[in-house]
């Protein structure tokens, strides 16, 4: 154990000092303004425990490592960052917390923290759970306890989802930004009609029935100086209204709040709030949207003959599948054909070919399922983030190896090739690290895509498919869609940029 005097030696007969850093955390800000709050209680308990170990040389460091209002599910916490920085600087011998889940509720993050502590010879102690990571048994106990902490957090999440589902079945407002036409009664926790905005909502629905085009209607609303919903959060933050675009209108037209209903997943329940739009007008709008969808779908099939070109592969032969077509009785039939099968014979491949329209529809259905589902968005985000991180790690390792090789190499030609590859890797790393955004931002961006997907031109749909999908593998028993590691963030950033443009 380090003694803190800088020379690493302990004089005979003296107990080495153990410099203890006390870390405290609370997930919410509730109660932190009190004179004696949860963070104070955690620190007091830790100080008492350190005092009981004074005979072993334990002393509490005066530095404060507190995170009030921060979740333990990630490491983006100022107090934790400060603590780990002091660990790396050699200022700390032991970290003391009230409970293990105060340090982290993520097994992966906790493993990273423990690796860092072990690297710098720092132990970890939990006051209430009586173990020390300086021993193998302490480390085992820690992992077991942390597993239960993760389980507890997942149970709490499930309870929250169940509560939201139960509330929506009763037609209750469950929070979030109010839509145009309604305000929030924060005392009763209900939606109440805003008469002025409700008049505009009814006008928008009626005009869409007349003009049948969201693009034209958005331009008309902007010419008339109308703006989207302006609202103020419970904390007093004002969100100003912005210029209209067709995305705003599609969200409005598909929102069943306006006919007095509350939607949860694929179900609809009578709401506690009053309707603004009659069901007859709402249904007429839906009929127009459906007709527009059919027209655009037909145009997409004719104008985008190879939506998956360059993306689709035969899973059996592990080779590309190319677009082709045949004509019969005046009709064109499109296919994707296994390149290997065309060379070696149809009997060599059980996949052979697939109908282009069917597989394109299946892939688009998977995309739109991701757009609509928070669970799929979260899973897709985690998977693609893991892919990106793995790719970044791989390239960083390759770059490190090349730098070492560069120092030993004397051949000018090899030096040039190596330096070119390092430059290429630097460019790829910058690209991968660019636009790394949070899961909630990605989720919001993808949900924006679904309502107006069918209104996009075929070339726009094809570009989004190319951005979001890395590979479509066709097997005899089905297909596998692999998403691009940077595609989700790119789409989110582009949509955010479009929104900023609309705000200007």
What would you note in describing this structure?
The chain has 504 residues and is of the alpha/beta class. The protein has 3 domains: 18-156, 3-Layer(aba) Sandwich (Rossmann fold), CATH 3.40.50.1390; 182-302, Hect, E3 ligase catalytic domain fold (Alpha-Beta Complex), CATH 3.90.1750.20; 305-504, no CATH class. It is 51% helix and 16% strand. It has helices spanning 38-52, 78-88, 100-103, 107-119, 136-169, 195-211, 214-223, 246-253, 279-303, 339-344, 356-372, 374-408, 412-433, 439-452, 458-468, 487-503; strands at 18-26, 58-60, 65-68, 94-97, 123-126, 131-132, 182-185, 190-193, 231-232, 238-239, 261-264, 267-270, 312-314, 319-328, 331-338, 353-355, 469-475, 478-483. Strands 1, 2, 3, 4, 5 and 6 form a 6-stranded mixed beta sheet that branches. It has a 6-stranded mixed beta sheet with strand order 16-15-14-13-17-18. The protein has a two-stranded antiparallel sheet with strand order 7-8. It is flat. The relative contact order is 0.06.
């Amino acid at each position: 154990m380090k003694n803190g005097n800088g020379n690493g030696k302990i004089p005979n007969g003296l107990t080495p000092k153990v410099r203890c850093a006390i870390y405290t955390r609370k997930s919410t800000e509730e109660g932190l303004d009190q004179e004696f709050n949860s963070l104070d209680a955690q620190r007091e308990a830790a100080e008492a425990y350190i005092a009981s170990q004074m005979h072993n040389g334990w002393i509490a460091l005066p530095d404060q490592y507190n995170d009030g209002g921060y979740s333990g599910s990630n490491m983006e916490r100022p107090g934790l960052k400060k603590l780990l920085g002091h660990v790396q600087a050699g200022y700390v011998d032991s970290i003391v917390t009230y409970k293990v889940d105060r340090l982290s509720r993520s097994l992966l993050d906790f493993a990273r923290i423990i690796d860092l502590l072990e690297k710098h010879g720092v132990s970890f102690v939990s006051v209430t759970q009586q173990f020390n990571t300086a021993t193998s048994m302490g480390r085992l106990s820690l992992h077991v306890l942390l597993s239960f902490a993760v389980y507890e957090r997942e149970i709490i999440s499930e309870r929250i989802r169940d509560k939201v589902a139960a509330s929506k079945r009763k037609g209750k407002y469950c929070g979030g930004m109010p839509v145009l036409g309604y305000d929030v009664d924060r005392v009763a926790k209900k939606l109440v009609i805003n008469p002025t905005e409700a008049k505009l909502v009814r006008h928008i629905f009626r005009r869409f029935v007349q003009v049948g085009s969201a693009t034209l209607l958005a331009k008309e609303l902007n010419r008339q100086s109308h703006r989207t919903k302006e609202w103020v959060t419970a904390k007093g933050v004002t969100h100003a209204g912005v210029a209209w675009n067709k995305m705003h209108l599609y969200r409005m037209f598909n929102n069943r709040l306006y006919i007095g209903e509350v939607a949860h997943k694929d179900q609809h329940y009578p709401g506690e709030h009053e309707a603004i739009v009659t069901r007859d007008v709402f249904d007429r709008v839906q009929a127009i949207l459906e007709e527009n969808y059919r027209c655009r779908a037909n145009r997409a099939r004719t104008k985008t003959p190879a939506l998956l070109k360059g993306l689709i592969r035969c899973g059996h032969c592990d080779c590309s599948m190319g677009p082709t077509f045949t004509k019969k009785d005046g009709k064109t039939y499109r296919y994707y054909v296994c390149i290997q099968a065309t060379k070696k014979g149809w009997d060599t491949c059980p996949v052979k070919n697939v109908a282009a329209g069917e597989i394109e529809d299946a892939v688009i259905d998977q995309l739109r399922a991701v757009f609509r589902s928070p669970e799929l968005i979260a899973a897709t985000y985690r998977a693609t983030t893991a892919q990106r991180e793995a790719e970044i790690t791989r390239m960083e390792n390759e770059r490190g190896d090349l730098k070492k090789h560069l120092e030993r190499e004397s051949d000018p030609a090899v030096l040039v090739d190596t330096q070119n590859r390092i430059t290429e890797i630097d460019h790829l790393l910058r690209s991968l690290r660019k636009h790394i955004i949070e899961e909630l931002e990605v989720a919001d961006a993808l949900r924006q895509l679904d309502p107006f997907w069918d209104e996009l031109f075929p070339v726009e749909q094809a570009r989004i498919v190319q951005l979001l999908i890395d590979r479509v593998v066709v097997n005899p028993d089905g297909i596998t869609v692999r998403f691009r590691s940077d595609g989700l963030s790119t789409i989110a950033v582009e949509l955010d940029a479009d929104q900023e443009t609309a705000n200007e």
